[in-house]
Amino acid sequence: MKKSKAIDQLTQFIIENKEDFYRLAYSYVKNSEDALDIFHESIKKALIAKDFLKESDSIKSLFYKIVVNTSLDFLRKTKKISLVDEETLDFLSTGREDSYQNIDLKRSLEDLPIKYQSVIILRYFEDLKIDEIAEILHINVSTVKTRLYKALEILRIKMKDERI
User: Considering the entire predicted model, what is its pTM?
Assistant: First the structure.
């Protein structure tokens, strides 16, 4: 693929899917500013990695891989506790009525180890296929299936325990 064509396709792909990638980064760091930083850093890394693009089909998996790895690198570097962002703080301080939609599921998902959290997020929230997840995370398809099964089993047990 020609370099200018690769950059054009990459740029177009990022523009068309920017909300999805921001949401993906946010699902890891739970902070809007950090998610934006990760997204911007991912764009920079993608432009540097443009030489690895051989065909347009690899743009999707390349950029997902970059966003996931940048998010994981950020978490490793900061190892910070997830703080409440200003929007949530403002919402909680207004005294509005509590909303408990899927809060147990959200907490249970956040409690999963990151290797299980990643496959759940990519499969069910980003709607990626198992082979795409394997490519993004650099693991075997069978490992993805195993982690999905294990993660769902852990979630099922946690959700059942929280109902009792």
Answer: 0.66
Residues 100-130 have pLDDT tens digits of 456 666 777 888 888 999 899 889 888 889 9
Question: What are the residue boundaries of the structural domains of the chain, listed by start?
Answer: 1-81, 100-164
Q: What are phi and psi of 110, to 5 degrees?
A: -65, -25
Quick check: 126 and 20 in contact, CB under 8 A? yes
CATH architecture of 1-81: Orthogonal Bundle (1.10)
